[in-house]
């Protein structure tokens, strides 16, 4: 068993900024989550960072420790990203009835967390066109079970590399893109959208492109994707614009 690190060294890292990235759809901030997320210290309390609004802190205190860590990390990332774009957000950012971050008027935002990282994407809302954004983060890893059948369409599966690390990475990338799309699409459709209702493929230039086949016939929507991952991290941003795809 690896030696347990002291709580003080953990708390130094918790909620520290990992990166700030300017993406085509907004500003993305990554925040380190406390070690409770790795299962290394689930008995170790962590302090709620002062950047939280008091109502956010009160909400966080009502969550289980692991959920508190990820939720707080997402709010810290959101608030750090809002600071980066010089957007003042004096009110608490809680959740919409559908679970997304209830962003203040005038700004768009999306949150994702995986393992020891929380990320948020924010952008100032333009008067027109009205767009929405989504972000998703995944850790590149060997898949313990084949999720492709559940999260990919038959066309997507047929374009995958042969079994191995490259296939796992591609499955995770397409999965991540769909989760980012889901978050950006949800404000427009307000319902669960299945993994079979979106198709993601490699664009000729190396990026990603998406098409929707929404079961309830909503739309059309334009969907743009941007991948900003590196090495062992998959990071996909989505932007949805009502109108012709
Ligand atoms: C909602 C969902 C996308 C969240 O993804 P996840 O991998 O479980 O978790 P992530 O850490 O990436 O994202 C969690 C964040 O998503 C956001 N979120 C949750 N529901 C949301 C919704 N309906 N709309 C927008 N954002 C939402 C929240 O901000 C949440 O973090 P928070 O509660 O701490 O604020 C996922 O649980 C889900 O239901 N997926 C199935 C449907 C799907 O992806 N279909 C793809 C078709 S396009």
Plain-language structure description:
With 245 residues, the protein is α+β, with helices and mostly antiparallel strands. The protein folds into two domains: 7-125, Ribosomal Protein L22, Chain A; 135-242, Ribosomal Protein L22, Chain A, CATH 3.90.470. Helix content is 28%, strand content 27%. The strands form three sheets. A four-stranded antiparallel sheet has the order 1-2-4-3, covered by helices on one side. Helix 2 (54-61) runs antiparallel to helix 3. It is globular, with a radius of gyration of 18 Å. It binds coenzyme A. Coenzyme A (COA) binds next to helix 3, strand 3 and helix 6.
Give me the Rg, rounded: 18 Å
Count every helix, treating DSSP H or I runs of 4 or more residues as helices.
6
The percentage of residues in β strands lies in 25-35%
- CATH topology-level name of the largest domain: Ribosomal Protein L22, Chain A
Mean pLDDT: 92
Whole-number tally of structural domains: 2
Q: What are the defining features of this structure?
A:
single chain; 245 residues; alpha+beta; Ribosomal Protein L22, Chain A; 2 domains; globular; binds coenzyme A
Helix and strand layout, with pairings?
Elements: H1 7-13, E1 17-23, E2 26-32, H2 54-61, H3 65-84, E3 107-114, E4 117-124, E5 132-139, H4 148-151, H5 154-158, H6 165-189, E6 198-202, E7 208-212, E8 221-227, E9 233-242
Antiparallel strand pairs: 1-2, 2-4, 3-4, 5-9, 6-7, 8-9
Bound molecules: coenzyme A (COA).
